[in-house]
Amino acid sequence: MSKILATNPVFNEQNCNSKSASFNESTYCNWTWDGIYCWPPTRANTSVELPCPTGKGLDPSKVAFRRCSSNGTWLGKTATDYNHGWTNYTGCYTSSAHQLLMKLFNSSEEEGKRKIQIAENTRSIEIAGLCVSLFALLISIGIFCRFRSLRNNRTRIHKNLFFAMIIQVLVRLALYIDQAIISNSSRLANLPRFGIENT
After folding, report:
1. Which residues, at least 6 apart from 21, have a Cβ–Cβ distance to it below 8 Å?
2. Which of 92, 118, 122, 170 lies deepest, with the highest CB count within 10 Å?
3. Where a domain ends, among 33, 67, 98?
4. 12 and 49 inside one domain
5. What letter does residue 93 receive in the DSSP assignment?
6. Whole-angstrom Cα distance, residue 123 to residue 1?
7. What's the structural domain count of the chain?
């Protein structure tokens, strides 16, 4: 199988769909959008490469590739998978990101997905706990401010502590909500997820 290094990758689906399907070869794989790149038409029995995307844990100096089979369909991850083809981005990861993925998926893909689901559920529980804490802290501050008998030096320390805790909870909630918005918008648009979502 020969290789072709494509240049100037297209980064959105609309531009990919507007590309002409005309190609001079009789058997070829057509333009296709994989959610990150638009892959150009490729001669049958050929592999095409594009530079890796930029992002945390990715090395843009490396290449990702897709393979076009001898019958003009994009090859899948397995030999029998011809649905949409498969883009091999595994070479794009930095060594530290690759090691982390190997640890995550060390036993099986299902086990790795289960670990990710546990982490997502843990984050949801953490957000719920932060909301309860914020509510309780606001009530406590309200009580300290409302009752005159609680306005003394001893409770002033507690009020300052509660204000600091409110600020900390608000910052963490803002980060988590921002991560959720980025995650959901990138899933809906089939874009790669950047940011600190997986912390």
Report:
1. 30, 31, 41
2. 92
3. 98
4. yes
5. B
6. 45
7. 2
- State the residue range of the domain holding 11: 2-98
Q: Are residues 22 and 75 in the same domain?
A: yes
Helix, strand, coil share (%) of the chain residues, nearest 5: 50, 15, 40
List per-residue pLDDT tens for the chain, 199 residues long: 555 555 555 555 666 666 655 556 678 888 888 888 888 888 888 899 999 988 888 899 999 999 988 888 888 877 666 666 888 998 899 999 888 888 888 878 888 888 889 988 999 999 999 999 999 999 999 999 898 888 888 888 999 999 999 999 999 999 998 888 877 765 555 454 544 444 4
Q: Which of 98, 118, 145 is the endpoint of a domain?
A: 98
Residues 43-100: pLDDT tens digits?
A: 888 899 999 988 888 899 999 999 988 888 888 877 666 666 888 998 899 999 888 8
Distance separating alpha carbons of residues 33 and 99, to the nearest angstrom: 28
pTM of the model: 0.59
- Torsion over CA: 162, 165, 171, 173 (sign): negative
Q: What are 126's two structure tokens?
A: 């953490």
